[in-house]
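ERR on first pass: missing label on line 2. Operator R.T. fixed the label and resubmitted. Corrected input:
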Amino acid sequence: MIALPPPKAEILAQRDAILAALRAMLPEDAVIGEPVRLKPYETDGLSAYRQVPLAVVLPRTTAEVADVLRYCNRMGIRVVPRGAGTSLSGGALPLADAVVIGLMRMNRILEVDYENRLAVVEAGVTNIGITQAVAGDGFFYAPDPSSQLACMIGGNVMMNSGGAHCLKYGVTANNLLGLTFVTIEGEVVRIGGEHLDGGGYDWLGLITGSEGQLGMVTEVTVRILRGPEGARAMLAAFDSIQVAGEAVDAIIGAGVIPVALEFMDRPCIHACEAFAHAGYPLDAEAMLIIEVEGSVAEQDALLGKIRDICARFAPLSMKVAQTPEESAAIWKGRKGAFGAVGRISPDYLCMDGTIPTGELPRVLRRIGEMSAECGLQVANVFHAGDGNLHPLIMFDANDPSSFARAEKFGADILRLCVEVGGCLTGEHGVGVEKRDLMGVQFSEAELDQQRAIKSAFDPGWLLNGAKVFPLVAGAHG
Amino acid sequence: MLTPDTESALAALVAAADAPFAIEGQGTKRAMLRPVQAAATISTRNLTGITLHRPTELIISARAGTPVAEVEAMLATKGQMLIAEPPSYAGIFGAGNATIGGAVAAGISGPRRITGGAMRDHVMGVRFVNGAGEVMHSGGRVLKNVTGLDLCKLLTGSHGTLGIITEVTLKVLPRPEATATLAVNAADFATGQRVLSAGLGAPYGVSGAAIVGHRALLRIEDFAESVAYRIAKLRQDLAEHGASEIIEGEASRALWRDVAEATPLDLAPDDAVWRVSVKPSEGPRLAAALRTAFDAKLMLDWGGGLVWVAGPATEAAHRAVMAAAEDGAFLLFRAPDALRAAVPVIKPDAPALATIARRVKAALDPRGLFNPGRMQAGF
Ligand SMILES: Cc1cc2nc3c(=O)[nH]c(=O)nc-3n(C[C@H](O)[C@H](O)[C@H](O)COP(=O)(O)OP(=O)(O)OC[C@H]3O[C@@H](n4cnc5c(N)ncnc54)[C@H](O)[C@@H]3O)c2cc1C
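pass 2 clean. output:
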């Protein structure tokens, strides 16, 4: 288990006074202090870690967020920002002496502007909510994390979330124009705007992906895009991971960049097929989901090119979706992959390293060996175009030794990712989960450099403590 | 001029320094922003060489002093390109052998920015020397990486004021097989801007949207059959906006090179140049205001949201640009030393952010060694 810093006794001792002060500055229904009502906030998508916070506040306006931050800063109270709480790295895990600031009530779409292809939304709007608001007019918001029904744009910004289609459309950072940002001092600052890069430091880029370490986001100006004329997915099945990896290289090497290029190994194919009945090939060791866009003729031409390339690698089978329903079924399996694995093993850890794609066969072989060594099953699903791996490690939460082995197995996979030239996290963030592995990827001087930048925004280290940076004396308040 | 030829020599130089430096690659953008107040110059021009190119991983790494042209030539051997199509601005600052580190430090992006992303979107990794003389890295050599604070984005476009970039890793893409441009006649900027918005709002993947003279230009790049199909569809969809022409192949490429380099501004030697970034629908208003204010020469890119402005190098003209930018952002791109030393050359940060900016600068360059005064007086 990863350690949380000891709570500040003087803050815990003032609990009643703090709740009273929060109630004085916010509407009655926006402050939660009763233990039973705090319980739902004790964890996020990394449910092995739980901690009930001191209090939860649910503000409805930027001004309320600023008031709470200003007060917490003055009192030296830690805060934990929260969106939907779907973080898989424990990014939204509370601390015992912290006030959780949940933005789920800031869920209004403030402006949609097709001429300038942008939307201004509050941080608590769900990812899918943005696309739903503009889909009727043929537009969409591109980054599409599998959690998109639940996760919120503020959380997406802070995690710089990706999705299955980011090979073509980029991740959250590539689809933003501006933010309303509130500093720990309670100052409301406009970052960026409704225009593209203006010169000056790229605060938008620094804040995106900062995991709640630098301040809070209350409004987001996102770019919206006109959807393509159409899209279609295909499956290609191979009898070895190695060969599937070579096919991926050959596709990209031929200058074809599909909108999505996803990879699953045998255990994952089986779990997903049992759940989605998408017609996945159960005889395969590895399967690719490849999606292309354009008019029907363009789709045919591109899928033809891709089929020709795959054919050179002796595929077991290839299947091109003939209807939108068939494409949807193919995606249902992929987007439900985590849930599908959850059906065969009640508990699993979802890892998130990135590797250079050329290292895929070696890394998956090594993961297989490690799985045998520690006696835990693993299913691999993988954004093949960009090297972002999601090994799902299955364990039994009722058996503490099983959880300890799973955590160690996960850490070993991430170390391997860094060793072959990749990184600890491609899209889920460091959070609490990978905090103590940061030294694998960064030198102590580099971590100090990042800490100094955090201190520039949050001199008292009150924002989202115990996350991202390894605990050291003096830091984390 | 100090021209260390290894990263560690550069780091040692900085560690031992006791006075500020101007930082440059080949110095081709020396005349951009404010004149630097430093007696000595450090150049990265001797830190050269492509260190990694993995075509199937869409990645290239090069030391900071490597010429952009050399990186592009290497990519071309594998049918690839830099996505941000960084212009040389030779017509604005004079010809030179711009370095890749300089292009990243200056955050330079061409017309593809509107849908393909800016330079900052494609910087996957940087190595740099901070003001304490320590070698740092951020990001890496993979396409997806959210580990720790994203200093790649902070360093990109920081104009050498936060660290000396020694090596960059960029995402690259296949060079499109074909390209074509739809040129729609447009009586004025307002009409042209509506054409661009209509084109960008159509489902054909437009990758360039500019107004030059009385023509709104929309670019499509893809496989040949796709380009042929999409440009015809686009023309059909936009028919109501005015007469149009399709420009193909090399003629289309030349057109966009000109847009990237802002050649149509037709600069006089003593013209000042500004770049103003606004929401695209605001471009025509801004253009009209500056035409009234000082008969500005104008060109619109990025769907109408990037307004290139040329005019007299006076404080009055600069004030007019700042005022007209409103919620957008301005940048004094070229001007004589006297003017660029006297005025804010970049839109100043709001006060709360300015305080943070000073602390961030101190975190990276505590002794204020790097490019003092380049982006802001006394900074
Ligand atoms: C089944 C499942 C599938 C997933 N699939 C993907 C995927 O495909 N791609 C992907 O990238 N991720 C995925 N995730 C991870 C997760 O959904 C994302 O990280 C998401 O962006 C988190 O959003 P959230 O609203 O739940 O934020 P939370 O989990 O509530 O918070 C995330 C982090 O941001 C901070 N934060 C939240 N809101 C704010 C704010 N307004 N201001 C400041 N800080 C804030 C929190 O403190 C925390 O550190 C998945 C998760 C699950 C459970």
